């Protein structure tokens, strides 16, 4: 009897209202077939393409086709396509990298094409000058293109002289303004050539040529569009200012 109780003990509990039995031979636990995934792994799966849209043309080799534009698209169209695609697929890392790579490739090609165009234009102009007649080459040898800031400064000076002459037309002629303009022209030419004789010849030559051209052109202007105080001398001086500006700016 004792051996039977020891082999299969039964514990009675009035509190639970039922018998609790324990088998000495414990059964081996069977592993559960259900598998549980941690939230961290699920988040990682969604990050690498679970719910985030992937750009379908990421593997397209042609950068224009990858962005969905033509080869002659403008810079604004390239930027617009890039921004639109990043808004749609920017959450996917590989898609965003593919879009940015295509965008940078197109910008680099555009920069290189513009640089080649400038170089080709200079080469063509130089070749045309070399193939031109000798008298044209000799004439162009006296011409130079200064910096933009120099052109703007001298243009402002002679424009001021012309405006001063027009505003002072009712009181007197523009002789004083023309003399100041001639002096400025000779000064600028001497500063470039370091020869006062050469500067004086070019300065007086610009004055004479401008006065002759003004005397020929001004009488052709209808008097109906001119102010009563604008004399022939005043209008001729305006043409002289133009020739003085061209002489001291673009001639060597």
Automatic annotation (TrEMBL):
<keyword id="KW-0812">Transmembrane</keyword>
<dbReference type="Pfam" id="PF11833">
    <property type="entry name" value="CPP1-like"/>
</dbReference>
<feature type="transmembrane region" description="Helical">
    <location>
        <begin position="173"/>
        <end position="189"/>
    </location>
</feature>
<keyword id="KW-0472">Membrane</keyword>
<dbReference type="InterPro" id="IPR021788">
    <property type="entry name" value="CPP1-like"/>
</dbReference>
<keyword id="KW-1133">Transmembrane helix</keyword>
<feature type="transmembrane region" description="Helical">
    <location>
        <begin position="201"/>
        <end position="222"/>
    </location>
</feature>
<protein>
    <recommendedName>
        <fullName>Protein CHAPERONE-LIKE PROTEIN OF POR1, chloroplastic</fullName>
    </recommendedName>
</protein>
<feature type="transmembrane region" description="Helical">
    <location>
        <begin position="234"/>
        <end position="251"/>
    </location>
</feature>
<dbReference type="GO" id="GO:0031969">
    <property type="term" value="C:chloroplast membrane"/>
</dbReference>
């Amino acid at each position: 009897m004792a051996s039977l109780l020891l082999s299969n003990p039964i514990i009675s509990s009035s509190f639970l209202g039922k018998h609790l039995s324990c088998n000495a031979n414990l059964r081996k636990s069977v592993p559960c077939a259900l598998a549980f995934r941690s939230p961290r792994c699920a988040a990682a799966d969604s990050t690498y393409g679970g719910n985030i849209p992937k750009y379908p043309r990421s593997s397209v080799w042609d950068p224009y086709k990858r962005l969905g534009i033509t080869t002659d698209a403008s810079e604004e169209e390239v930027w617009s396509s890039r921004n639109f695609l990043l808004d749609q697929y920017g959450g996917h890392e590989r898609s965003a990298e593919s879009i940015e790579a295509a965008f940078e490739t197109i910008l680099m090609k555009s920069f290189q094409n513009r640089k080649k165009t400038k170089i080709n234009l200079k080469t063509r102009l130089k070749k045309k000058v070399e193939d031109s007649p000798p008298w044209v080459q000799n004439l162009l040898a006296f011409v130079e293109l200064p910096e933009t800031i120099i052109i703007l400064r001298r243009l402002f000076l002679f424009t001021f002289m012309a405006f001063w002459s027009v505003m002072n037309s009712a009181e007197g002629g523009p002789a004083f303004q023309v003399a100041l303009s001639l002096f400025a022209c000779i000064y600028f030419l001497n500063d470039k050539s370091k020869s006062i004789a050469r500067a004086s010849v070019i300065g007086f030559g610009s004055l004479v040529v401008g006065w002759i051209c003004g005397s020929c052109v001004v009488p052709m202007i209808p008097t109906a569009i001119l102010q009563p105080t604008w004399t022939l001398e005043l209008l001729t001086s305006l043409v002289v200012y133009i020739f003085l500006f061209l002489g001291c700016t673009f001639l060597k």
